[in-house]
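Input.
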Amino acid sequence: MNVDAEVIWRRGDSDMPENVRHVVKTAQNELLLRSLQLPVDAVDVIRYNASKNNKTINEYISSLVLGSIKIAQ
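Output.
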């Protein structure tokens, strides 16, 4: 097995390259969706609405939660 890997970025190495940032945000979004254990239809709607509003899934869900908190107060 070949264990040689090219290190693209390490924390503290100045700014994260854009291609790495994209992969990290995508992984965070997927982890969030999986942790919520929502039905597939709900996940699809969240992905669609986040994309439509030009937000990440994390930003979109955060806005929904904050909106619900404001309504409840």
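The chain has a mean pLDDT of 86.
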